[in-house]
Amino acid sequence: MRQSTITEGGEAAMTDLTDLFGEPIAVYTMTDALADGTLVDAGDLARDLFTWQVLLTAGAWADCVAWSEEDSEHTGAYGQSETGRLWDVLWMTFVAIRRTPRAAGDEQVKVELYRISTTAERALEPEPEKIELKAVVALHDDGTPVLVISLPEED
Fold first, then answer.
1. What's the whole-model pTM score?
2. 13 with 7: CB under 8 angstroms?
3. Which residues of 62-76 are buried (b: 16+ CB within 10 A; e: fewer)?
4. Would you state the pLDDT for residue 137?
5. Cα–chain center distance at 99
6. What is the 3-state secondary structure (H, E, C) of the chain?
7. Which value, to the nearest 10 degrees, does the dihedral of the CA atoms of residues 51, 56, 62, 67 take?
8. Least confident of 50-54, 115-119, 120-124, 151-155
9. Rounded mean pLDDT of 39-43?
10. Nearest CA to 43 among 78, 89, 110?
11. CB neighbours of residue 151 within 10 Å
12. Which of 40, 62, 27 lies closest to 147 in space, CA to CA?
């Protein structure tokens, strides 16, 4: 792994990080995270709003997107679907990014939305709960930017 630094003369100098720190003990890549389900690709639906690939953490997916027929039966919230819930997350993220003023050093955007919890008690009309997510830009293994949507406490 090489890192570029700028010398006093303004020239780029390459430093091999393995010379400084030795060989890595373990490497866990974004590709590994996608393969093991730690990250979930939002797929083609995200391309309607975003140029970059959009990934959700497994926690954000489970809390805001995942939905089954059993969830409809348990909560009484019929008409919910994973596609619709994913669109809600993507749209509210898009709106939050557009509305958030940019400032130097900003690392994340707060995303607020309402969703029906899969653990909600059965009701004729279940009450949506307001929740918060965060969106950050990260670099994929190949250096391309990706948008990662996660729960606020997740890294």
1. 0.79
2. yes
3. ebbbebeeebbeebe
4. 93
5. 18
6. CEEEEECCCCCEEEEEHHHHHCCCCCCCCHHHHHHHCCEEECCHHHHCCCCCEEEEEHHHHHHHCCCCHHHHHHHCCCCCCHHHHHHHHHHHHHHHHHHCCCCCCCCCEEEEEEECCCCCCCCCCCCCEEEEEEEEEEECCCCCEEEEEECCCCC
7. 10
8. 120-124
9. 97
10. 89
11. 18
12. 40
Higher pLDDT, 78 or 140: 140
Residues 152, 3: Cα–Cα separation, whole Å = 30
CA distance 131 to 65: 13
Tokens of 41: 């690709």
